[in-house]
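TOKENISE THE FOLD
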Amino acid sequence: MSVTLYQKKQSLAEIGEQLKQTNNEIAEKAGNPAIEDKILNDLSEKSTGLEKRFNMLKTQIDHEEEAAKNKIKQKEFHDDPKQKIIHASAELVRATMANKAVAPDILQALGDDKTPSGGQNILPVTVSNQIISEPFDDNPLRQDETISAITNLILPRIAYSIDDDGFVGDQEVAKEIKLKGDQVTFGRFKTKLKAAISETILNGTDTALVQYVQSALQAALAVKEKKVTFATSPKTGEEHMSFYSDEVGITKISGDSLFDAITSSAADINDAFQSNVKTYMRRPDYIKMIKELSNGSMTLFGKAPEEILGYPVRFTEKAVTPVVGNFNYVQLNYEIASTLYEQWKDYDKGINYFGLTAWFDQQILLASAFRLAEVTPSK
């Protein structure tokens, strides 16, 4: 018959009381020469035995209480919705890497209530949304453009209208709408991303595995997004995503210097777009411009870009020609429901990869909201 924790604590209290009494009795009789040594030795043996029993029982109680606390913590951990997602995400990666089907409860935790087919064509919406929708430090455009995850997305080129609208009546905007239509239809362009995973990462904690995979895939997406956004020679079919594409038709503004080109570009943009105008450019170009403007003085280097240009600046190495405009008129859309996960191995390198195949499109809704700042020194 098992002894309960309550019974153990009762016994511990009784032994503790006996030990206290025995030690008090030893203290009283040790100072009395009339007490025989045998009596004191018997009391000492009794005290040692009681102390040993007390310590053994206390060790059992401590271990049992610690186990109970850990069980409560574990239950609280698994009841935490955030931790459930992390655990489910980690199990998704491990199952995919092992070419195994993902358990239905894992898929349900990730927002996919469909029956899995072999573990390969799974569509966990939560993981896709975390990877695709969270801000990327490596892609500054995500601070300004609109991010969406809508299948078959169609948007009006201009989000609002008013009676006797002078904005749409603006010649440049009106021409663009007439040429391109008043709706923007988002397409599906496939991109395959890979995160190299070692055995130590795969067998590590759920949190470490999920953070590693998401960070790797987010970084890969950021590289892809910047590549298509600032492509000087876009891939066939992706021309509409690049600010530099002739198909988009962004107006080019020239200046004798980079400062002149950027400020003239900003000034040339219609008032309707002015509230959120920013400049995207390369950091080395900005530093060179500041050196030219300061003419040897260091006073400009401590100033914010908006104090010098009148508008905020975002830096990216891909912006070989500065892009000036209202980046609210750029939208990036992912089809999360179409996201696929898979595993494969590079046998030459001996590296296992967790792969994500995503479909996306980026649309520059109004080229009229942007200008390209080009330097053409006058002769």
